[in-house]
Write a structure and sequence with these properties.
Blueprint: E1 5-10, E2 14-19, E3 25-28, H1 34-53, E4 58-59, H2 70-78, E5 82-83, H3 95-107, H4 117-129, H5 133-152
Helix pairs in contact: 3-4
InterPro entries: RNaseH_sf, Tc1-like_DDE_dom
Organism: Araneus ventricosus
Domain Tc1-like transposase DDE: 23-120
């Protein structure tokens, strides 16, 4: 199974996040600020980072404002966590985002709606457990072509 953090908003400020080592699920309720994010990093990221990547792993995140707050940047520095440089408004080549889009499509397919967070959580868990490794491998295999298209498009969003 792929490893990464995926997050979706549900109703006003509630969210469910998957820290994907194939079995770890983290549910977040309410809005997060940078201090909440730091607590999440301390309890979820640090314990798993070395298990996943040994000594030389790199954390990747999107450009959400809580991710780029000065306190968060300081926390990364203080904890020797390398963060993958992700330019603002860059074309999205993040495979985790592509996996998340596939997951959302399967969870919300045919207009499916959920009555509550628990029901959504159960559906996400069920769909995640049926995810095919081939789907993920196809995304990795497509990366050379994606990068080539990005270069050909002069850094603008390619057609993929």
């Amino acid at each position: 199974m792929p490893r990464g953090i995926s997050l979706t908003e549900f109703q006003k400020g509630q969210a469910i996040a998957y820290i994907n080592d194939g079995k770890t699920i983290l549910e977040i309720t309410g809005r997060q600020n940078h201090k909440d994010y730091i607590k999440q990093l301390e309890t979820e990221l640090l314990p798993y980072g070395s298990d996943w990547g040994g000594e030389n792993w790199i954390h990747q995140q999107d450009g959400a404002s809580i991710h780029s707050a000065q306190g968060v940047k300081k926390w990364f520095d203080d904890n020797n966590v390398q963060v993958f440089p992700w330019p603002a408004k860059s074309p999205d080549l993040n495979i985790v985002e592509n996996v998340w889009a596939m997951l959302v499509e399967r969870v919300y397919g045919q207009g499916r709606q959920y009555e509550n967070v628990k029901e959504l959580h159960e559906s996400l868990d069920s769909v995640w457990n049926t995810f095919c490794q081939k789907d993920i491998q196809n995304l990795y295999d497509s990366m050379p072509n994606r990068v080539f298209e990005l270069i050909q498009a002069g850094g603008k969003k390619p057609s993929y």
